From TrEMBL, chain A:
Organism expressing this protein natively: Mucilaginibacter polytrichastri
Protein known as: Uncharacterized protein
Keywords tagged on the record: Membrane, Transmembrane, Transmembrane helix
Lineage: Bacteria, Pseudomonadati, Bacteroidota, Sphingobacteriia, Sphingobacteriales
Residue ranges crossing the lipid bilayer per the database entry: 85-106, 143-163
From TrEMBL, chain B:
Domain RNA polymerase sigma factor 70 region 4 type as annotated: residue spans: 127-177
Source organism of this protein record: Mucilaginibacter polytrichastri
Biological process according to GO: DNA-templated transcription initiation
Keyword Transferase applies: no
Record-linked InterPro entries: RNA_pol_sigma-70-like (IPR039425), RNA_pol_sigma-70_dom (IPR014284), RNA_pol_sigma70_r2 (IPR007627), RNA_pol_sigma70_r4_t2 (IPR013249), RNA_pol_sigma_r2 (IPR013325), RNA_pol_sigma_r3/r4-like (IPR013324), WH-like_DNA-bd_sf (IPR036388)
Protein name as it appears in the record: Uncharacterized protein
Keyword Transcription regulation attributed: yes
């Protein structure tokens, strides 16, 4: 059941049905309690209607428009590049690669390898110092540990950057 | 001077590339948006940040405005969501520094309270003081209903609630506002005696 106050607010706001409105109107006229509370709420309603709006700073509109202009000027490079241009460049390079490969395949003498004798040897390179064998270098414990440690730190750094990006994207 | 064009006409001009039309829209709604932001932020700097963010967001999604409701209702829904996000962020950032800021704000309020004797006399000053002591949700509903010229259905659309829920919330918000106002006036009467 609605309280007197709730009924009266509905009456003041005009949100009650015509029947309810008539009944409340009668009660206000006849019932002293109703009448007093109605007058009190009516006065409050008038006070609430006089709420003063806050005044934003003088340059507010200017700042908003500047922010919009700055945002529009900073169009991401991804959006600024013409996609057709990218597609065109991709087409040209793909065509050149296919054409060179096809030309190379057509001009190869496939029988040359079986008839001719290979007369080629790798040049001898002499290093100035005696370096430790690569196998020994990698298998040494401190080097391997440093390498793994560096990889783990690097991996965590990228994971953190990725998660931050995900969180920022979710917020907006 | 503000434009005499309707909100819809200004929106159409903005979508046509006329940024000056959007500046007119901002001028038209900035006081109310700023007031709503103040209901959540309590400090003018934060309220300005929220209000500015709202107008930028509204500009970005202006093309998605379906014109099924008033522009103001649509804009207030942006204000509400932006302010709620702001409050959530603020809660996460809560620290002892914030407590210090609150103390300073109270001190400042007290200072301005004593300085503005003329303003103190006006009834609307007390109403505004009482509103600032309400919870953001209550203060927003009261402000939208009395100053925003929004019906219960429009408030419901802006806040993403049922019209009946808004009706109940408005009733409770009025009761709380009445209590706060009575307390404030009693306190003032005691001070005068």
């Amino acid at each position: 059941m609605n309280s007197i106050e709730e009924n009266l607010w509905n009456y003041i706001d005009g949100t009650c049905t015509p029947d309810e409105q008539q009944a409340i109107s009668m009660l206000i006229e006849t019932d002293e309690v109703y009448r007093r509370q109605y007058e009190e709420l009516l006065a409050l309603n008038l006070e609430f209607s006089n709420i003063e709006l806050e005044e934003p700073p003088m340059a507010f509109t200017y700042r908003v428009m500047e922010a919009i202009r700055a945002e529009e000027a900073m169009v991401p490079l991804k959006a600024a590049i013409n996609k057709n241009l990218i597609r065109g460049l991709f087409g040209v390079f793909a065509f050149i690669i296919v054409a060179i490969t096809a030309y190379a395949l057509f001009t190869i003498n496939w029988n040359a390898g079986s008839t001719a004798t290979a007369n080629f040897s790798l040049p001898q390179v002499k290093l100035p110092v005696n370096l430790p064998p690569a196998k020994n270098l990698l298998s040494s414990a401190p080097v391997l540990k440093a390498f793994i440690f560096f990889d783990v730190v690097f991996g965590l750094f990228f994971l953190d950057a990725y998660l931050r990006k995900q969180r920022t994207a979710k917020q907006f | 001077m503000q434009s005499k064009l309707s909100d819809i006409e200004l929106i159409e001009q903005t979508l046509g590339g006329n940024q000056a039309a959007y500046a007119d829209l901002v001028k038209r709604h900035q006081r109310f948006v700023f007031t709503l932001a103040m209901r959540f932020a309590k400090s003018r700097e934060d309220a300005e940040e929220i209000a500015q963010d709202c107008f930028i967001k509204a500009y970005r999604s202006l093309s998605s405005f379906q014109q099924q409701s008033k522009f103001s209702t649509w804009l207030y829904s942006i204000v509400y969501t932006t302010a709620m996000t702001f409050l959530r962020k603020k809660r996460l950032d809560t620290s002892s520094i914030d407590d210090e800021n609150v103390y300073l704000q109270i001190e400042n309020q007290h200072g301005s309270f004593e300085n503005n004797l003329a303003e103190k006399q006006s009834q609307s000053f007390y109403v505004n003081q009482a509103i600032s002591q309400l919870l953001p949700d209550d203060a927003t509903i009261i402000t939208l209903f009395y100053s925003g010229e929004q019906s219960l259905e429009e408030i419901a659309a802006a806040l993403g609630m049922e019209a009946n829920t808004v009706k109940v919330k408005l009733f409770r918000a009025r009761q709380r506002l009445k209590e706060k106002l009575e307390k404030l006036l009693k306190h003032e009467a005691k001070e005068l005696i």
